[in-house]
User: What shape does this take?
Amino acid sequence: MKEIEKLQRRLKDMVPAGVYEHSLRVQQRCVELASHYGVDTNSAAIAGLLHDVAKRHSADELIYLAEQDDLPITELVLTEPVAALHGVVGAAIIGREFGVTDREVLLAVQQHALGGEEMSALSKILYLADKTEAERTAPEIEAVRALCAQNLDEALVAAFDMMIRTKLNERSLILEQLVRSRNKAVLKLRRSD
Ligand SMILES: [Fe+2]
Ligand SMILES: [Fe+2]
Assistant: This one.
């Protein structure tokens, strides 16, 4: 059995069915984007498949686990613990329980929910794959999907903007890391103009 199939079997027993199905779609989308941009498709498949492994935990468990790892738990983090913490906790689980040692894969999983100030091509691909997989819906999603085929950095800014606008429309709080990641991505685009 191929390595990725073994990982799929393990993941299936760990997360709710909806998360598992989403993970398979993100894996597929990651591979598509990785082949398009010349990134290692095996790393992309693993990152895509395992990115939401921490969704096996409740919000309270995520807070507990993050505290164990000395991650800062701010008031804002407590308003959206799953969004704020499942990426970082997920990377720790993948390292510890799945034996993944590839730093780029671990960092991509860490950054998939809110981005990061320094993102590798793999991190960008996972972020975009997660936000544009086949079953996702959002008013701007087709535009973001179209940009994914053209330019990774343009697509990344469009995806951050889409996520931030969704939060604004819901009158939700916006975690600082998402804003920092978006600003950094915009500055990078401006510098490359
Ligand atoms: Fe996620
Ligand atoms: Fe996801």
Remarks:
- The chain has a mean pLDDT of 96.
- The two ends are 47 Å apart (CA to CA).
- The pocket of fe (ii) ion (ligand 2) is lined by residues 22, 26, 51-52, 130 (CB under 6 Å).
- The chain has one domain: 3-139.
